Amino acid sequence: MINRFIKTISILIFVMSYAGQVFAIDKNIYFVGNSLTHRTKLAGLQTFTEERGHTFNQDKAYEDYSQIISGSSLWWHWYHGNASQEFYYKDEFIPDMTTGHWDALVLQPYDGKPWHWNTTALQDGWYYWQDRPREEGDIPMALNFIDLMINQGDSDSGLQVYIYSQWPAVPGNPDEPDFENFDYQERWNRDYTDTTRYNSRSRAYYKYLMDELRTETVEMLDNKILMIPMGDAIYELNERLKASPIVNGDTTYNNITSVYGDGNHLSPGVMQYFKALVFFTVFYKEDPRGLPLGSYGNINWYHELYQPYFVEITPEWQTLIQETVWQVTATHFYSGVRDTLKPGDANLDGVVNEEDLTILNAAMGSKDVDPYETGIGWREGDFDGDGDVDEDDLDIYQANTEAEPVDELAQCASFTPPATVNVPCLNINDTLYELTMNMLPASDSDALHLGIDMDSVNFVALTPNDYCASYDVATGMHLNCLNLDALFWVDLQLVPTTEGLELELTDFGNHSVLEP
């Protein structure tokens, strides 16, 4: 018979805590674009940044950080003068761009031609005096603005440049667009063959711009050029609306055309909020979920000409917008946000676990797919961004896999000392035992006396019992979780002795502290 004994161990538990720190991000960002930039109402971004403890163009008036000309491409900004021929528009914006330090530059391409020489010698008209031939493509014009800011201004090669991708325009007269024959998916996915302004706004065109500009600026910039992936984010919103329409009163929103204002612009309200969240997420690399509406939800904040197109941002809209923006922007190949994600976290829930492995396995073997395309990317398991899902991505997942998040309190056996914990059945060398631990409070509030009472209760069973946890002698027994006004993990070592079996405490740690 194994003698009964009690072994009491005093343990001092140190409860450690830390305060999370929020790091403020202060950004001064200059914008060059037209109404597709302007109607985002960029000043509203300040509400979001303040909500998160950051700043956006602090103490700057809107006209001091934006060069906006309605309907203009980058070459128009660069070359255009007014009818009186007294000045170039760039004579107005150069002082803003070259005085003071800018952290970032946002450029809105709008020409539809990446490389283009205009050789037409205009002899009449109100801009007849402009010289020809001249280079007018989106790429050389973007390089002009970048060079201006870092070589003639106070900014340096650390400048972060963003290319603002837009969304396809609806065919037809802008005031009478042909919505019935408009397919966002088809327009966005088309090959880049049409160099007209409206038809060039496609995934392929912006990808071409990004790759060319990154190559052209290797020596100019320390940071890779990033993208504001508005067209891709709207593509995803369109797909989600088709799958699960939003109904508000008598109106059903079942595709993206229902929130176009005209053939070129998006509705105030829902879509301006959507666009602002995309900008915020790329600029600050933060999850936009939980951000308030700010002024974007107020119809009176918009010009009276646009108010008839206003779409109310209901709670359902707000949730859909925030989820869509985060899913697309966080994982986008060119946004720069994916660098802040946990490698292997395909579903963006903050944990690398079996759910992510299921996603990865479903796409395993997919090859020769452009990582910028919607079909294959981070959310499908292409964690290294090489355009396929293979063993390399599985290695990334395995290197970062984590335990499934659990509600620790719900999983813990809960006791308040003094109390007794019973482990009803242990199978050790084909003998069954009962383990009793007595939890005793100590004089020190941070200490706990753990009394271990070992008693044999079965001398007959010589085969393992299905209801018992089985251990060999000299192996460890892990008590996963005890809640003793805090959460503890207990490791016990089973050691054979001349009298039978003895327990030694090998590790007693406080892994997390939660309110009981």
Describe what this molecule looks like in 3D.
Residues about 1-20, about 80-85, about 125-130, about 440-450, about 450-465 and about 505-515 have low confidence and may be disordered. The strands form seven sheets. A five-stranded mixed beta sheet has the order 1-18-17-16-19, with no helix packed on it. It has a five-stranded parallel beta sheet with strand order 5-3-6-9-12, with helices on both faces. The radius of gyration is 32 Å and the shape is globular. The chain has about 525 residues and is of the alpha/beta class. The chain is about 25% helix and about 25% strand. Helix 5 (about 140-150) packs across helix 7 (about 205-215), helix 8 (about 230-245) packs across helix 10 and helix 9 (about 270-285) runs parallel beside helix 10 (about 315-330). The protein has 13 helices and 22 strands.
Biggest sheet descriptor: 5 strands, mixed
Distance, first to last CA: 40 Å
- Number of DSSP strands? 22
Radius of gyration: 32 Å
Q: Pairing-aware structural class of the strands and helices?
A: alpha/beta
Low-confidence stretches: 1-22, 82-87, 123-129, 442-450, 452-467, 505-516
Multimerization state: single chain
Sheet with the most strands: spatial strand order: 1-18-17-16-19
Strand content: 15-25%
Helix content bin: 25-40%
Mean pLDDT comes to 77
**Mass-distribution shape:** globular
Question: How many helices does DSSP assign?
Answer: 13
Task: List the SSEs and their pairings.
Blueprint: E1 5-12, E2 26-27, E3 29-33, H1 35-38, H2 45-51, E4 55-56, E5 66-68, H3 74-79, H4 89-98, E6 104-107, E7 117-118, E8 134-135, H5 138-151, E9 160-165, E10 172-173, E11 176-177, H6 184-189, H7 203-216, E12 226-229, H8 230-243, E13 246-248, E14 251-253, H9 270-284, H10 315-331, H11 354-363, H12 391-400, H13 408-411, E15 413-414, E16 419-428, E17 431-441, E18 447-458, E19 469-471, E20 476-483, E21 487-497, E22 500-512
Parallel strand pairs: 2-4, 3-5, 3-6, 6-9, 9-12, 15-20, 16-19
Antiparallel strand pairs: 1-18, 7-8, 10-11, 13-14, 16-17, 17-18, 20-21, 21-22
